[in-house]
Amino acid sequence: MSDGVTRPEPGQSPAQAHGQRPGRRSSTRLDNYVDRYAARTHGMTASEIRALFSVASRPEVVSLAGGMPNISGLPLDVVGGAIADLVRDHGPTAMQYGSGQGDPLLREQICDVMRLEGIEAHPDDVVVTVGSQQAVDLVTRIFCDPGDVVICEAPSYVGALGVFRAYECDVVHVEMDAHGLVPSVLREAIAAVQASGRRIKFLYTIPNYHNPAGVTLADERRHEVLEICREADVLILEDNPYGLLGFEGEPHRALRADEADGVIYLGSFSKTFAPGFRVGWALAPHAVREKLVLAQESATLCPPSFSQMAISAYLKAHDWQGQVKSFREMYRERRDAMISALEDMMPAATRWNVPDGGFYVWLTLPDGLDAKAMLPRAVTARVAYVPGTAFFADGFGSQSMRLSYCYPTPERIREGVRRLVGVIEEEMELRATFGAGGHPFERGLERGYEAPNTDLN
Ligand SMILES: Cc1ncc(COP(=O)(O)O)c(C=O)c1O
Questions:
Q1: What is the 3-state secondary structure (H, E, C) of 146-159?
Q2: Whether residue 133 has its Cβ less than 6 Å from ligand 1
Q3: Could you tell me if the CB of 137 is within 6 A of ligand 1?
Q4: pLDDT in tens, 124-137
Q5: What are the residues facing 69 on neighbouring strands?
Q6: What is the Å distance from ligand 1's center to 137 Cα?
Q7: What is the pTM for the complete model shown?
Q8: How close is the Cα of 140 to the center of ligand 1, in Å?
């Protein structure tokens, strides 16, 4: 007897049962491959940031969302000249496969860069990667089995959380305050995980000008964090793309500068030069470095020779430290523009931190407001931010948001804050009128209201 429902035969997928041939794309938006993906892909969902890029790139929207470095200050003539020389003088090498570990000259130059943060390293222990994002991936790939614990700050970098999710790690968040990771809380979290019999594979930390929290680990806490991890035998993954972008004084001393065996250090040219070259690196203890090179070779054969040699030529031919100084000045001016706009306009119950480097301010809304639910209204008001929930593995952060000041001009930043304040004030008024849960937009969301062009899931 037929009930009109087509059921799959044994061995047949639901798509096949409906007459669709495997390997063929249907013209619908349904995913015919849904039952064939590996289990580890189940955690792979589009991040808020990714979904936002399409909206935020519209010219009428002031995007305080993306963390794109502002490379307009780069001397394009110098870069262009260095690249033309590279093609003319070393084209056949630059356009050929290279070493899986990365170009030897660039690895030496990377050691010079890291010396600015107190690190004495040998080029043999450096692996060049496709941005530091790939370094996060490779380290996770060689260390983590499903269910292994990675300790992360609360909040943490969305791109790293995506990697940990893809490798089916369990993320345990550890609280920060205005001075970064709180050592006593870290100690307790490690003890609690170890007491539960689970294995901690590493602590993932961004000590300087944190993405997204904007805070920096206080110098006097750094030894304590190292000590806690040494005692508990927990490896540290120190992710430091913003370390040279501090607004006051000298760069902070890296954790890796005082601990060679227990720290894997990640660096990047994305924020101090340009992200389009996709060049970052990992500095790792010798044995780990060997595994990373094998993982790198299986992922990409080798990092791109052309990008590495172009960066190497730029570092050699240009006053790159002078360039970083001018980036710092530009970002400091934009930080000032954002902070003064927030101070002038934000409602009293809103809180934020004042970063002393990097790209980000972490803002917490008045009680009862939800940054994720508010995002469609903000986009309608032509301003974008990233809701705090994107930076937690466990759904926390709904009252907060990340604001980036790196890309828009100071005038646009002020205008963006003005629009955001309008949205927050309207939200507060609606809350006062309808109370929590009675907001007309949320009723819309419950009915399946979809924000224009934004994936809020
Ligand atoms: C904390 C952190 N780590 C890693 C990355 C990845 O940088 P890239 O792959 O461009 O070096 C970013 C980029 O924004 C970041 O903020």
A1: CCCEEEEEECCCHH
A2: yes
A3: no
A4: 999 999 999 999 99
A5: none
A6: 12
A7: 0.88
A8: 15
